[in-house]
Write a structure and sequence with these properties.
Blueprint lengths: L10 H14 L1 H11 L1 H12 L3 H29 L1 H20 L4 H29 L5 H29 L7 E2 L2 E2 H7 L2 H10 L7 H6 L3 H12 L5 H12 L19 H15 L2 H14 L4 H25 L5 H23 L3 E3 L2 E3 L2 H19 L2 H11 L6 H52 L13
Helix pairs in contact: 1-6, 1-7, 1-11, 2-6, 2-7, 2-9, 3-8, 3-14, 4-5, 4-6, 4-19, 5-6, 5-8, 5-9, 6-7, 6-18, 6-19, 7-8, 7-15, 7-18, 11-12, 13-18, 13-19, 14-15, 15-17, 16-17, 16-18, 16-19
Family: Belongs to the major facilitator superfamily. Sugar transporter (TC 2.A.1.1) family.
Keywords: Cell membrane, Coiled coil, Membrane, Transmembrane, Transmembrane helix, Transport
Protein name: Sugar porter family MFS transporter
């Protein structure tokens, strides 16, 4: 007798779904890798081009504006060209920008390549969750949707490990030369390898059945549904559900999102605010600046890269916890747990950083506060990873009605990148003014995120996408 998963999906079909989900999530790996690789290169770029905190904040953050643009256009491209073709475009942007970032001749040149990389990141951030939500059986959608965040945190971890390895090969200094280039240039260029893998896998996985139905390719959609849900699934009923949900649908436009709540539908605002809160707690300060942050409080360059890798490992552990729990206890409980834990950890980190003593151009923490700051940073990453890191992407992929999903997800993802940009570009200047004050602000937004989820976010666990509205 054929084994069957709880959703009624035969296990061999579920294995196929896991494969195509993992392939699609390589975009998330690139997203994490390309976002975090700059962490190890920041000090090298600053020394090589002789720029200050404002300029380095601009170069780090400029990719996020490209991400906002990529996210903004991805929904329309995905609805016109398909989910798979959009993945391929994102992969090509990653590949080309990786070479450009590795070989800049000026700081503005590097910034332009980072904008292009950001556009690829933004497109991947939209298309990955949308595609996975559209191919996953309802009972497994939360766990499979979590693959996107798992891939992101794996990308972050691998980038930190690669950065550490390159720095070690270069003698512990990212400005040392290695085979003709400075170490930080190799760090930025290494993204070419996963970009080409993403392009390869995007050519072999099937198109989303919902897109296929939307463009009239019903027979192909039937075949894909059979592949992912098995022979025992009522394929005609599933096709009818999709067709019914799309019957009144036209190609999603931004005008479809208009509503009575400050010009937008309430559900769109909820998606935007989920995205904003995910960034305003300051998580990407850890992944973009942690190497320079720990150097600023007295840890050497090589050890700071190793600490950055350790936070990435904690990030992975938390993501696996979220994957195990998201379909069991639901989305809202995980978000509430995460908000509470982050608020406490950030407040403790703020206290530790308040003890910093200025010695010349750097800040030094007493040994006790230095240890507390390290532990608090790791606890913060853990609570983020087991909650907001995973659940926001799951919710954005499933919470919107079919008729506006792609457009609404584009807007929410664009808002996320703008929020990310605001946090990233402001941190160097904030840290120079008051590192403790910056972390008090992040703790405040963690508290606000708890209140927001408590009163505004609905549970979506176990519901079909056609039921969302």
């Amino acid at each position: 007798m054929v084994g069957t998963a709880p959703s009624g999906t035969p296990k061999e079909n579920l294995g196929h779904v896991v494969f195509i989900t993992a392939a699609a999530a390589i975009g998330g790996f690139l997203f994490g890798y390309d976002s975090a690789v700059i962490n190890g290169a920041v000090t090298g770029i600053q020394k090589h081009f002789q720029v200050g905190p404002v300029q380095i904040g601009f170069v780090v953050a400029i990719a996020l504006l490209g991400s906002a643009v990529g996210a903004w256009i991805a929904g329309r491209i995905a609805d016109r060209w398909g989910r798979i073709r959009t993945m391929q475009v994102a992969a090509l942007l990653f590949a080309v920008s990786s070479l450009g970032q590795a070989l800049p001749f000026a700081i503005w040149d590097l910034a332009l390549w980072r904008v292009l990389a950001g556009a690829g990141i933004g497109m991947a951030s939209v298309i990955g969750p949308a595609y996975i939500a559209e191919v996953a059986p309802p009972a497994y959608r939360g766990r499979l949707g979590s693959f996107q965040q798992l891939a992101i945190v794996l990308g972050i971890a691998v980038s930190q490990l690669v950065n550490f390895a390159i720095a070690q090969l270069a003698g512990g200094d990212v400005n040392n030369r290695l085979l003709g280039l400075q170490a930080w240039q190799w760090m930025l260029g290494a993204c070419l390898v996963p970009a080409l893998l993403y392009l390869l896998f995007a050519t072999i996985i099937p198109e989303s059945p919902r897109f296929l139905v939307a463009v009239g390719r019903t027979e192909t959609a039937r075949r894909v549904l059979k592949e992912v849900e098995g022979d025992r699934a009522d394929l005609e009923e599933r096709l009818k559900e999709i067709q019914d949900s799309l019957r009144l649908e036209h190609r999603p436009r931004l005008s479809d999102l208009r509503g009575p709540a400050l010009g937008l539908l309430p559900i769109v605002w909820i998606g935007i605010l989920l995205s904003v809160f995910q960034q305003f707690v300051g998580i990407n300060v850890i992944f973009y600046y942690s190497a320079s942050l720990w150097q600023s409080v007295g840890i050497n360059q090589s050890d700071s890269l190793l600490i950055s890798f350790s936070t990435s490992i904690i990030n992975i552990v938390g993501t696996f916890i979220a994957i195990a729990l998201v379909d069991r206890i639901g989305r809202r409980p995980l978000l509430l747990i995460g908000s509470a834990g982050m608020a406490v950890a950030l407040a403790v980190a703020a206290w530790a950083f308040s003890a910093g003593v200025h010695i010349g151009d750097t800040v030094r923490l007493p040994s006790t506060q230095g240890t507390v700051a390290l532990v608090a940073a790791h606890v913060f990453v853990l609570f983020f990873a087991l909650s907001w890191g995973v659940v926001v992407w799951v919710l954005l992929g499933e919470m919107f009605p079919n008729r506006i999903r792609a457009a609404a997800l584009s807007v929410a993802a664009a808002a996320q990148w703008v929020a990310n940009w605001l946090i990233t570009v402001s941190f160097p200047s904030l840290a120079e003014w008051s590192l403790a004050g910056a972390y008090v602000g992040y703790a405040f937004f963690a508290v606000l995120s708890f209140v927001f989820v408590l009163f505004k976010v609905r549970e979506t666990k176990g519901r079909r996408l056609e039921e969302m509205g």
